[in-house]
Amino acid sequence: MQTIGLIGGMSFESSAVYYRLINEMVRERLGGLSSAELVMHSVNFEEIVALQKAGNWDGAAARLGDAALRLQIAGARSVLICTNTMHLIADQVAARISVPLIHIIDETAASLKAAGRRRPLLLATRYTMEHGFYADRMKGLGVDIVVPDPADRTTVHDIIFNELCAGKVLDSSRQKLLQIIERERAKGADSIILGCTEICLILDPNRLSLPGFDTTEIHAKAAVDFALGHGSMAETVAA
Question: Largest Cα–Cα distance of the chain, in whole Å?
Fold first, then answer.
């Protein structure tokens, strides 16, 4: 089993889900009391959010690049950025290391295509929905995403940052998200990307009106596949 490296803390709520999922998957596959060989570098999310708000993506890339390098030095044979938004700088982070960076967008696109889905609704932070990096990479992989209208994007973004990242899961917010899904389903969306690693805390991808794709679970599975040699990454971001 190869060691998995996790860049976590963005937020620690979803990083805890990564840790649990990866270990559960390893135990299921290997049996007994098996658990994953992994190392995590958990950053101070407050500092990362400040860089996001300032549009200082180079600063964020340097911060996460340092974390990735430390994971490699600690023995990681692959690295995951445990958040969708910070894949905006995935290429810069990957350039700092010589081990593969397992890319959440690539793995999600592969899952969507395997299921025959081509027009998924993306629910994520404003950065992920609006900056273009997610849509552009998905399009290059044969998937055309759709996003909610501006008011609904604000609603989703605020639920993520003001509630889920702070450990708050509210039924009222779940209903708002379900209403957004219904509006976009009526416009032709054929599936849902839970495109923020905290959204799995509030929405069950298996209990939606459209097929749901949980990026946290997809990403964790890709890490386990790679670590155990049971599959290849959809695409490695080259260093």
Answer: 49
